[in-house]
Structures are given as C-alpha cells and as structure tokens.
Write a structure and sequence with these properties.
The protein is of the alpha/beta class. It has a domain of about 200 residues: P-loop containing nucleotide triphosphate hydrolases (Rossmann fold, 3-Layer(aba) Sandwich). It is about 40% helix and about 15% strand. The protein contains 15 helices and twelve strands.
C-alpha cells in the first residue's frame, strides 16, 4: 500500500509554470530510481496535459480522433473510461470506506474471508504498455485526466478525497502516488480532491514576483487561500514539501548556493549557477516565503509546510524546501515533449520524432543530455522520505 509520505500533488495557481512538464519528467525519474515501488500518476486536470505527455507526447496523431490533436491526447481519449482518473475515483467512491485493520483482523478471527484489496491496475494504465516508444520504467502507471472529472462536483471533493485515499492505501503492493492539478484550484473540485488526498505538495514556480504574488494574493485560487478554505471545511490537506523554481536562466553548470552573497551557514544548494540577477530574485522570493510563513503573525503559514517546526531562518527554509531546474534548450525540450520520452530514458545516440516537421528528426548532444539527467535526478532524490 502507499506509505504515508509517498503521495505528492503538483499544485500552482499560475498556469504556464511548467507543472505538467515537471510531472512528466519527475515521475519518470522517480519510477526509474525506485523499481521496488509501483508509481501511479493520477491526473486530476481536466486538460490532461501530463497524461498526454506520458502516453505519446505532442506530436501529430497517427489518425484523426475527435478531441485529440496530439498522439498523447489520442491515447488519452481512446483509453477505457474505467482506467482514467474519473473511473478510478468512481470505483473508489463506489467501494465505500476501506475496512480498518481492526475490521480485517476481526473477520480473520471468525473465519470470514479477508476483504478484497483495491485493484489500482484495473483503474489505470501501464505507461510502457500504452506508449512502448517511451521506454518508460515498467513500474509506472497513469490514470489520465479529462473533462469527465466533473464527476467530482457530483461526488463532493471532501468525501471523494477521503475515500480515494483510503482505497489507495488498501491496494496490494507498495505504491507512490503523484497527482497533477489545474491552476483554478477552488474552481476545480478535482484539484481539491488531489490536495486533500495527497500528503505532500510540490509547488512549481517561476523567478517572477508577479507569479509569486498570485500564489499569495489570489483570494479564490491562490494556493494558501485554497488550503485555508479546505481546512475550514474540515478537510485534512497536504503540506508543502518542495518549492521548485522552474525554467531558471543558467549562467554555468557549476553548483551554487541560493544565498551565495550572504554566506549563510545552512542554505539551498542549486545544481547549477543561475544568472546573477535571477539568483538574487530566487533568494528574495524564497526569503519572502519564510517571512510570510514564520514571522507574519497575520498569516502564520508555517503550518502548511512539512517539518515547519524545524525551520528557523531563511537559510534553513532554502535548504529544506527550495529546488530549481534550469531552462532546458528548446531542442532538448522539443525532443522530449514531441516524442513523450522523458529525459531520464533518452539517449544521445537516438534520433527523436523523425519526420515530425523535420525529416532528420532531433538529436540531443550527450553533454547537454547528461546535465539534464543529472539535475532531474538531484531534484527528485529527496522525495523518497
């Protein structure tokens, strides 16, 4: 069953932060790094962007399918309804609450057969089987999203989240679960389900104060506003585990400290050196996160972070929560997104999307690909806990 702490939701109320792309790359890397686990992506986005990347990418579809303009989306819309996220959710809520350990034990004592475990694989798809060209790890599964997630409005997000969590925890084997969401958090009950069903939040963010301001100040869909409103309705909610600055302008490949200019005793170590002005921006935004969480009594948002009680200053905040991914070259990103092959499974000797806009296809230089793989692996390394 999924162990507490191994369920993550990618959430940001800023569209275009690279959330679904990060899901595609991170879960693929996570599955590769943990072959002992089964890894499930529950795509709770009505747009199903992460699902499309996992199942075929953004290249032209092989044939015309209504509502599918890419190969990945074609495989999403033609997948069996019971194997999509809405089908998984419907099965979980129909099944009712999972029996408690005490309930299982008492039935065993009186000779009754143990209850059936929830069959996750019957309500999801093996990514490698559905998209063989991806070369994905065989332990990666996806329950694709889509507009049918409107079912969450009918079922109610709070009960749906509780039952989904219970059923996934009753599944056989060890699972790690990752959720994707839509930016309109409170306007999309499916996003609320994900935030209430998961344990930990990964927040993709750009090096932009405008984007950060939306995270804080949007009273409807801002992440903190959403968490507070969900708590007020009596629901448990996930806690922030990582803030990932995405698409950061890179100056050099060498590692750097977030607060390099201040020489803090403890600090976030970035796997590359951002452009100086961008690094300063990242540090300022990170420090403001700490201020609003730990020093602003009117907000006191530290409770929305994992291990918040262990963080005492800006450097410790950076060390515990902050990660970054540099802006990947358009050539490499196109190769991955068009083909649906994540970086961790790509090879510099291969040519990708041959015939898709360019008869020669796309090759990614070995040195560039090695650096991308290294940085994605470092980003995901700490997500085991």
């Amino acid at each position: 069953m999924p162990v507490l702490g191994r369920s993550f939701v990618f959430a940001s109320n800023r569209g275009g932060a690279g959330k679904s792309t990060l899901v595609h790359q991170a879960v693929s890397q996570y599955a590769q790094a943990h072959p002992e686990l089964k890894v499930l992506v529950v795509d709770m986005s009505i747009h199903a962007d992460a699902s499309a990347l996992l199942l075929g990418g953004c290249r032209e579809p092989s044939e015309h399918t209504q509502g599918a303009r890419t190969m990945g989306m074609q495989r999403v819309v033609t997948s069996p309804p019971e194997r999509r996220a809405a089908g998984l959710l419907a099965a979980a809520t129909r099944a009712g609450p999972a029996p408690s350990l005490a309930g299982r034990f008492s039935k065993l004592l009186v000779g009754a057969p143990p209850p059936e475990e929830f069959d996750v694989e019957a309500h999801s798809m093996n990514v490698l089987e559905r998209h063989p060209e991806s070369g994905q790890p065989p332990n990666l599964f996806v329950a694709p999203g889509g507009p049918e997630l409107s079912i969450c409005s009918e079922l109610g997000w709070k009960d749906s989240a509780r039952l989904l969590r219970e059923r996934l925890e009753s599944a056989s084997g060890e699972w790690a679960v990752f959720y994707d969401t839509d930016a309109e958090i409170m306007e999309r009950p499916s996003s609320c389900v994900a935030l209430a069903a998961a344990d930990r939040i990964v927040v993709p963010m750009s090096a932009s104060w405008n984007d950060y301001r939306r995270l804080l100040d949007d009273g409807v869909n801002g992440l903190f506003s959403a968490l507070e409103r969900m708590e007020a309705e009596g629901s448990p909610v996930a806690k922030i585990d990582r803030v990932v600055f995405n698409r950061v302008s890179k100056h050099a490949n060498a590692a750097s400290e977030l607060h390099k200019a201040r020489g803090m005793e403890r600090d976030a170590t970035l796997s590359f050196s951002p452009v100086k002005a961008v690094l300063e921006q990242l540090a300022q935004i990170s420090d403001h996160c700490f201020e609003t969480g730990w020093r602003d009594a009117s907000k006191a948002w530290a409770r929305h972070y994992m291990d918040g009680e262990k963080v005492g200053d800006e450097g410790q905040f950076g060390e515990r929560y902050v990660g970054a991914m540099f802006e990947i070259s358009e050539n490499a990103m196109q190769a991955s997104q068009l083909s649906g092959v994540p970086f961790c499974r790509m090879s510099a000797s291969e040519t990708y999307v041959r015939g898709q806009g360019s008869a020669a296809g796309i090759k990614v230089p070995a040195d560039a690909l090695d650096k991308i793989k290294q940085d994605v692996a470092l980003l995901v390394e700490g997500w085991r806990a």
